[in-house]
Hints:
Layout: H1 3-22, E1 24-31, E2 40-42, E3 45-47, H2 49-61, E4 63-70, H3 72-80, E5 86-90, H4 96-99, E6 105-106, E7 111-120, E8 133-137, H5 146-150, E9 155-159, H6 162-171, E10 176-180, H7 181-191, E11 198-200, E12 207-215, H8 219-231, H9 233-243
Parallel strand pairs: 1-4, 1-5, 8-9, 8-10
Antiparallel strand pairs: 2-3, 5-12, 6-12, 7-10, 7-11, 7-12
Amino acid sequence: MRKSQIAxxxxxxxxxxxxxxxxxxxxxxxxxxxxxxxxxxxxGKYQGFARELFDAFARDRDYVFEYRALPVPRLYASFFxxxxxxxxxxxxxxxxxxxxGKAITYSEPxxxxxxxxxxxxxxxxxxxxxxxxxxxxxxxxxxxxxDRIDTGKVKVSENASFEALVRQVVAGxxxxxxxxIAVVNYQLNKVLAMPGALVFAPQLPYSRDHYHLATLKHxxxxxxxxxxxxxxGSLVDAMKRRHGVEVSLPAKQ
Length: 253
């Protein structure tokens, strides 16, 4: 091989190496909770709709996203202290007091969620006054019910896991469970093999809001993500349907 050929080969090899190193890596802080189909850990690996969505964006922009799963309190602390590049999910209404004075950039809505009450199918017409004991996952605040909880009309029963919470409602040990409807459907269909055993009761108080990607450091990347979402609407909608993350959403009121 001639020296010129060796030189060209060396430059190309270096170029490949430099190209491999050129992909910018970001750390995305995520919850270490099982919130499938939106997100969750399967055998220690971050999975679900959010993983597929963010990986697709990162590939298109030649970024690398590393997902760091943390307990929710630690996730907030790490994000607000600037130890993470991004946080997901996030919402400007969560932990409002800790957001004061911080220049947080939020993406456009990543997905819409409903937190509402699920009941046995035979009680789908249940009234507000018939709910005396409301189940939740430990640490989860049923905001839409706080007025009735504060006045003692409703007692909250916390459970450590979604699966156990769903089983409580099915068994009739509590009147209903306040939770993310898509997550409850996933538990019924994929985990417990009880499709249709519980239904969402939209006549009861519920919350409808959005999950966002948030950052304190990389507003430009979030803006890129917003553009990507708009340009790839059909792809994103297909992901949502495949994962079932926006199932059972009632019409906007």
